[in-house]
Amino acid sequence: MDKRKFMKNRKKRVLAAVLLCCLFVVSFGLSGCGRSGNRESGAAGEMQKTTQTVPEAEAQKPYPYVFQPHVMSAEYKDKYGEEIEQIFYDFCDAALAGEESFPCPDAISYYAVFDIARSCLPVASAYTVIEENQPQNGIGKITYTVPLEEYKERVQEFKDRISWWITGCLKEGDVPFERVVSLYTALTNNLCYDYEALESSIDLSPYRALMEDRAICQEIAGAYVYLLLQTDVNACLCGALSRDMSNAHEWVMVVLDGQYYHMDPTFELDTFVGLRYFGMTDEKRQQEGDYPISYFNVAEVNGLDQPEYAAVDQRFAPLWNTAWYELDRERKVLLYYPVNNMDEALEFYY
């Protein structure tokens, strides 16, 4: 949705939305984490007019977040085998502690660990390098790119930052849908697309997106995956080339209630307060950007059977034209205002 048209046509409610977005950027102070909505996961997805108000955010306790050292997209076990989970978690323990090695049985596992770390332990991915001829005698080497004490400080800063992201917009008792939509909007409200990075030699990493306010698609997607994994929602990276091969793009696949959905927080950066790219089906993803379904690279695997990861559920379709939304956590309802009718809220039950 074009921001100028939005501002021209939405009058008083839009002015209120702008003020709320400004407050959100400072403190994540909204019960729904900000912006408008497109699609959201839930159950029936019924739509009804409503005049009820959303409970005050102050009445809800913050999400009881504790940093999880062990998180991994489930799809990587399909790619590398069940045994990779423990190998990766051993790496996590070693890397978070600043140790210089970890148990690793073979070269395939060693390279797999660093592949997984990009979205499943971004701080380690950002400050370590892959060594050749590893592992040796069942031990994999970890080499850091900054002095060890500085790295340990970066690890603590990273943990604090992750807590800031999560506790800033989630509430105690949030169900998976509330976590998914709130973190999606947190990212799209707080990140700016870094056009300069496209022309520079800067190291691109989800770590940069999480720690700073500028990023490009692969960084934003990895950041969203990691935040979801930290809140016990399975998610993985997905990417594709456009049909004419002119551009490559990366987004996220999220599992809600056993169903896969495409989420693209990068594309959402330009919608002002929307969820146009939230909870997309395969067909919707193909339309939005002209990325053929046959090109989808789920979890960067390329060899997985695509139908196993098909996104076909359309329950979020009513929300794709939303201009503004709010979460009523008490009633488990998303109140949303369609672009063509900002005077009446509709209800989406999740």
UniProtKB/TrEMBL annotation:
- The positions making up the signal sequence are 1-31
By its UniProt entry, which InterPro entries does this protein fall under?
Papain-like_cys_pep_sf, Transglutaminase-like
Where in this chain does the record put each Transglutaminase-like domain? 173-265
**Keyword terms of this UniProt record:** Signal
Report the superkingdom from the record.
Answer: Bacteria
Q: What is this protein called?
A: Transglutaminase domain-containing protein
Q: Give TM regions.
A: none
Q: Does the keyword Signal apply?
A: yes
In Pfam terms, one family for this protein is Transglut_core
What organism is this sequence from? Fusibacillus kribbianus
